[in-house]
Structures are given as C-alpha cells and as structure tokens.
Design brief:
The protein has about 140 residues and is mostly helical. The protein contains 6 helices and 2 strands, in the order αααββααα.
Length: about 140
C-alpha cells in the first residue's frame, strides 16, 4: 500500500501552513492563527486523500476553508470592546459567530470524510489488497 505519487506541493503547503500557524501564535494575531490553523486541517485532509483527490473533494475542502475564513473575519470585525455588547441569541455578536458558526463548522470535514471514505479514502480495490497483504502477514507470523 505504498503511495509513490509526487505530492510535494501538498507537503510544501502543509509545511507553510504549520509555519504560519506558529508565527501567528507567536505574534498574538488571533485572526491569522485561526485561518492558518484551518489551513493545516484542510491541507492535512487533502494530503490524506492525495491518491484519490477528486475535484469534488477539492471544492468541498476549499468551500470549508473559505467559510471558516469568513467566519473568523466576522469574529474579528464584530469584536468591539469599546461599546456595550449587542447580543445575538443571548451572546455578544463575535462570541455568537464563534459558538453558532465556527463551532459546528468543524463537523463538516468529519462529515465529508465519512461520506467519501468508501470511494476516496479506501476504495474496494485497495481494501482487497490490504486484506490480502494483512492476512498473508498474519499467516506467516502465526507459525
């Protein structure tokens, strides 16, 4: 089950996102930290799907990233500590965006992974090869 495809661009992007996350955390830039952290998550998912990375998965991941970035921007834009808080659903506006928008958003990559697992992550042909290799390995170690 060795993947020999050249996916240096994904690895390079993931490395850059990790470095940006570290830099954002060190400088205290919350918006950049959130956006860079989501880039790490999305690129990690893309790297996991690298052998079967289809257009629909790429667009789904790009949409999740764009939505998350827009919500992070909304949190930063709505934060106004100099005025009395305006409440949305019982919370200050920026907190409401965080709780009701960003918090449930983390389920989208999980849902995408679960829905596309059979055809994109472990298609039947790879499962057959894995099971054949694993059962052969078990037989040789059992003796």
């Amino acid at each position: 089950m060795k993947d020999t495809g050249g996916h240096g661009g994904l690895a390079l992007g993931l490395t850059a996102a990790c470095l940006a996350t570290g830099a954002a955390g060190a400088t205290g830039n919350a918006a950049l930290l959130g956006i860079a952290s989501m880039a790490v998550i999305v690129l990690t998912l893309a790297f996991g799907w690298r052998s079967n990375l289809s257009g629909s998965i790429l667009w789904s991941l790009a949409g999740i990233y764009a939505l998350f970035s827009a919500l992070i921007a909304a949190v930063v834009w709505l934060e106004n500590p100099t005025s009395p808080p305006q409440l949305w659903l019982g919370l200050p506006r920026s907190t409401a965006v965080l709780v009701y928008g960003i918090w449930p958003l983390q389920m989208l990559p999980c849902l995408l992974f679960a829905l596309r697992f059979r055809d994109a992550v472990l298609p039947p042909d790879k499962l057959e090869r894995f099971l054949a290799e694993h059962s052969r390995h078990r037989k040789t170690t059992a003796r």
